[in-house]
Amino acid sequence: MSEILQKLKAIVGNDNLLTDELSRQLYVTDVFTRGLPALAIVRPTTKEQLGAIVKTAVDADIPVVPRGGGMSYTSGYVPKYKNSIMIDMVNMNQVVDINTQDMYVTVEAGCSWKKLHEALQSSGYRTPFWGTLSGIHATVGGGLSQNSIFWGSALHGPAADSVVSMSVVLADGSVVDTGSASHKNATPWHRHFGPDLTGIFVGDGGALGFKATVTLKLIPDTPARRGVSFAVETGDTLLAFVSEVSRQQLASEVCGFDPFLQNQRLKRESLGKDLKALGGVMKSAGSIGKALKAGTKVALAGRGYMKEVKFSVHIWIEERYEELADLKQQSVLKLASEFGLREIENSIPTIMRANPFGPVNSMIGPQAERWLPVHCVAPHSIVRDVYKAIDEMYERNRVKIEQFNVGCGFLFATVGNNATVIEPVFFWPETLNELHRYAVEKEHLRKLKEYPANPEATAFIHQLRRELIDIFTRFGTVHMQLGKSYPYDEQIKPEAWTLVEALKQHVDPKGLLNPGTLGLEAK
């Protein structure tokens, strides 16, 4: 092992090789799970260094695992084997090329969504999908490995639908360029050149290769923005409404909350009193007059308007022209009236859009509870049936849910024009882990009293997650963050699984690239 460490140090230098105990534990911990301690954490700064690290590890028969911003909750980067080598992409974070003539942007895979967003702000262009809510940490490479959603997803689909090309390091250290970049004389301007090689490495969790650079589409920016919010009586009505908004392609983002998750938001510090959030609202409003009006409206609304709301749904509308944004907003309002929804203050979409990549303090509960989301992506035709089945499962487990003081909530979102995400969310009393203490703002943590270890409750959360996944499998829904938590190998048809295994065998014969992800094991 000491010989391997010396080889890695020769590649990246002493400062970019971490072997201290805290790092070896922190980097193998995600929001929910902790893996076995790593041998070392290595931070490449170039594509060549990334290739050399991977080759060194694989030649020595050591599993090697990539880690982006660390925001996974499905064990995506949590190593399955002790003394794995973790690759932290934090130093490969540059925006390489903004090409507004051919309409693409290329970044290193460790670039955060927040950094990319800021780099494009003055260009007049943006990517169709432009990040996750955790984008202050979450990286472009990680987002594509997990096929993330949120900003732009209701109109443009998940991260996978915005990527054009990648440079990917394989197990032997070689680099494969995909899309038009695989042409001997071309640049990465187009995704489709023969078989879609780019698609192979989207949603793979690093099991097939490690992303070095990523090229995304550019589209004109959308300065005409509207936010609308509604109170809804039932989850069934909410899902029916957002499905129709999705089908008619009226929104750039859509999200909804059930009463429990909504109440969790109200328990947190008031958004209306958050000077950073208000500052973002006023800054994004444009002129001084509009800024004062927008800031005053949010501040006066406070949180009181939500107290009588059961379910809520929040819709973002973005267009290039004010007239088009107005038309879409009127269409959404008309549709809401037809479904019996009541319009409420639009503080949540206003604040979130003005501060798209805020702190990740919501990765714990308002009283320092542990937090775990589970999700499925369902077609509109069955999403309400899936929701009903989840509710019935909760009722079957009601006694234990109350015994262990588990809070159960729902987050809803739409993806493209044909799917809705249902994300059941659990909160329960349990001690925090290393990632929480690292990622949550220190000032926020100091206000909270941490719970003691609660292994029985956490074991029950594992049970609830398994029961949810059984429901999702029965209905034929799919998942984004597959990681090592969703049984991809059990859900996929044998013929397709055989092809996936053959791909793995070709690009990673020893099975040492993030083994366990997608159910693909080391040889």
Label this structure with key terms.
eight-stranded antiparallel sheet; Uridine Diphospho-n-acetylenolpyruvylglucosamine Reductase, domain 3; five-stranded antiparallel sheet; 523 residues; single chain; Uridine Diphospho-n-acetylenolpyruvylglucosamine Reductase, domain 2; alpha+beta
Helix content bin? 25-40%
Number of domains: 4
- Biggest sheet features: 8 strands, antiparallel
By secondary-structure content and strand pairing, the structural class works out as alpha+beta
**In the CATH hierarchy, what is the class of the largest domain?**
Alpha Beta
How would you describe the overall organization of this protein?
The chain is an alpha+beta fold and 523 residues long. It has four domains: 2-90, 2-Layer Sandwich (Uridine Diphospho-n-acetylenolpyruvylglucosamine Reductase, domain 2), CATH 3.30.43; 92-220, Uridine Diphospho-n-acetylenolpyruvylglucosamine Reductase, domain 3; 231-356, no CATH class; 359-482, GMP Synthetase, Chain A, domain 3, CATH 3.30.300. Helices cover 37% and strands 19% of the residues. The protein has helices at residues 2-12, 21-26, 47-59, 113-120, 140-146, 153-156, 197-200, 235-247, 259-267, 275-285, 288-301, 322-338, 347-354, 383-396, 398-403, 434-439, 442-446, 455-475, 488-491, 494-507; strands at residues 17-18, 40-42, 64-67, 85-88, 95-99, 104-108, 125-126, 163-169, 175-177, 210-217, 219-220, 224-232, 253-257, 311-319, 342-344, 370-373, 376-379, 407-415, 419-428. Strands 12, 13, 14, 15, 16, 17, 18 and 19 form an eight-stranded antiparallel β-sheet that branches. The protein is globular.
